[in-house]
Fold these 3 entries.
Entry 1:
Amino acid sequence: QLQLVESGGGLVQPGGSLRLSCAAPGLFLDYYVIGWFRQAPGKEREGVSCISNSDGTTGYADSVKGRFTISRDAAKKTVSLQMNSLKPDDSAVYYCAATAVPYGRRWYLAALYDYWGQGTQVTVSS
């Protein structure tokens, strides 16, 4: 079983930034497509961003495009989500997820992902 661990969540003011990280301790993540999802209370889980397991292709939800950036570290042991210009509507529990299914247009479907972290809380508020 692949265990994923998220970190970096917290409280930030609107317009601020946070950097989330996803890792599987002791393992490399380059074999997997890694997605970031978020879920706010009373709302459906939504895909935020993903990065492919081959050529580094990335995908973003329209709501975060231009503000969030997903990347792999040089050692391929972590995947980060840099979140800038944060808005109150970005508040949610953020999850990283992994799948060996090749990257595709429908990366944002949670059902495609086999492994999930426990989530990290992001709160954007004054």
Note: The mean pLDDT is 95.
Entry 2:
Amino acid sequence: QAQLVESGGGLVQAGGSLRLSCAASGRTFSPEIMGWFRQHPGKEREFVAAIYLSGHAADYTDSVKDRFTISRDNAKRTVYLEMNNLNTDDTAVYYCAAGTGGITRSPFRYGYWGQGIQVTVSS
């Protein structure tokens, strides 16, 4: 019943911006935290950003601090990732995730995952 669907990915030139969206559906689906992870080719999935759904607390990995902004719209049941000043190192498949408890970088507390969406940054 619960589902996460990412959108907004694509190809962008280095220095440009892109906004990812993650829409949650399901009548009884009520996560406490939502976050974004990404996976580079040949690498393990890594944490990008997370946000608490009952407050304004957010967390970012060092490589995206001051460039990415995670936000939420609970009425639309949607979480966004605004990505600015993109560089080629940001090229990856981005995954939306939903979980429980306080903000965490651990994937083990994210029980629901989207299918992933490709972001490619060209130089």
Note: The CA atoms of residues 16 and 110 lie 29 Å apart.
Entry 3:
Amino acid sequence: QVQLVESGGGLVQPGGSLRLSCAASGSIFSTYVMAWYRQAPGKQRELVATISRGGTPAYADSVRGRFTISRDNAKNTVYLQMNSLKREDTAVYYCNANKMGSNGPYWGQGTQVTVSL
């Protein structure tokens, strides 16, 4: 029983930055592994980054060095800081929560990120 709400998407120029936020409610946030996925038009949804319950991050090769995932368990929020954005980063970005033994995974509604001149 987890509800996720993303925010922070928008239009940004190549080379620019955005920070996405995902606010969670309805369960014990600190016990969930959190992740960001994205889906571009006509493409499969792909994993962007994940962060463990203890705060250990992992990244897709395409974003490593440019994106940073973090979590604030006191605020029940996970973030995705996106720097040096490229046109190919354009997608709908989704927040995800999961753990073994839960009824998940749970998904947010998505937030649009468009990287364009």
Note: The radius of gyration is 13 Å.
